[in-house]
Write a structure and sequence with these properties.
360 residues; 36% helix; alpha/beta
């Protein structure tokens, strides 16, 4: 029977799940990638993972997310994570803009969306969650990349993209990673786990007063949304989309237990500027203990337009067509939850898990 999900695993993770199956107790960390509305294809899976798979969790579970992944992880840490992720999906998928929206308009709509995501008590619930330990990634811009003048910002982006194509080690010249966390102990991330800027990643605590700004900053796509200039607990600056640095998290995940990585695509790209670089590959050793769950090729082909949702839909489709298409993708995502539950409860599909190394 054709499955709606594909399972990929690093060398150690593949050995573990083939011998012992996959259970919530094995998972010590979960990651959420950037990608905007691409995550709609994971909506049903998120609801199952947040609401059922980890329902009775008592030991710490560490999560890390950037951009849309940060918003998803913020939903996960609330008392009713299914309600939170449903709010996010509902409001995000029905979002509309004027014919030629300005940066200000899009930024204001994003602020409203974050307010909907958090609800009345979401910020407090995330911070006080005794089990879900949240890490949200934000990039602090430098040089021209920090300017809100479109021409200067574009100059900074072109410069950083060009030099990044030569060497990823140049990216810290333009962007500095900030990791905002609720709690951080031996299993949490420290500088030794990140790939290109060991010792340079900055750390700051999430608070009731700064979590909205952190979430807005983590999703602040350059040239599309305004950067966030002030975040409590860190120095003033312009903070932008965490996916610029950590688009799909090619980082050295802590090696205790397995890392669950629901992802909309099996190909891993380290940073935002690496998307078009066919020669820039993720490091296999970073994914040794990772179990990645993605929509299968057959599932994607069954969707309207035979693709998952993405930001280009705003430009290519009229509003009514886009919203109808996005609702279809959201409803079809329930199939991923059904097949993942079969994998967990009955082991169906585990024998088809593939090594992750060839797709990196």
């Amino acid at each position: 029977m054709t499955s709606s999900i594909s399972v990929y695993a690093g060398k150690s993770a593949l050995k573990e799940i083939r011998q012992n199956g996959l259970s919530a107790e094995q998972i010590q960390m979960m990651a959420g990638a950037s990608g905007g509305p691409k995550w709609f294809t994971l909506f049903g899976l998120d609801k199952y993972i947040f609401g059922e798979f980890f329902k009775n969790r008592e030991t710490p579970l560490y999560t890390i997310g950037s951009s849309a992944g940060a918003w998803r992880m913020a939903c996960f840490a609330q008392k009713d994570p299914v309600a939170a992720i449903t709010r996010l999906a509902t409001y995000y998928s029905h979002e509309t803009y004027s014919q030629k929206p300005t940066v200000e308009e899009i930024s204001q709509k994003a602020r409203i969306l974050v307010n909907k995501l958090l609800g009345e008590d979401g910020a407090k619930e995330i911070l006080e969650n005794p089990v879900i330990q949240t890490h949200l990634i934000v990039a602090r811009a430098k040089g021209f990349a920090k300017s809100e003048n479109k021409l200067l910002q574009l100059t900074g982006l072109i410069s950083s993209a060009g030099l990044n194509a030569i060497s990823a080690k140049t990216l810290p010249w333009f962007f500095e990673r900030y990791n905002f966390f609720t709690k951080n102990d031996f299993l949490g991330f420290d500088h030794s786990h990140f790939n290109y800027d060991k010792g340079q990643t900055k750390y700051a605590g999430l608070t009731v007063n700064n979590i909205k700004e952190v979430l807005l900053a983590s999703g602040a796509i350059p040239l599309v949304l305004k950067g966030i200039s002030e975040i409590e607990g860190v120095r003033k600056g312009i903070y932008r989309d965490g996916g610029i640095i950590d688009y799909h998290f090619d980082v050295a995940f802590p090696k205790k237990g397995l890392v669950l990585y629901p992802h909309f695509h099996p190909i891993i790209k380290t940073g935002w500027f690496d998307k078009g670089l066919k020669y820039r590959h993720a490091k296999a050793e970073n994914f040794d203990n990772v179990v990645m769950i993605t929509p299968s090729e057959s599932h994607i082909k069954s969707l309207p337009y035979q693709k998952i949702t993405d930001r280009s839909d705003f430009e290519k489709l009229d509003t009514d067509t886009r919203i109808k298409y996005w609702q279809k993708v959201l409803s079809e995502s329930e199939k991923l939850a059904e097949d993942f539950s079969k994998l967990i409860e009955k082991g169906i599909g585990l024998n088809q898990a593939l090594p992750i190394e060839p797709i990196l």
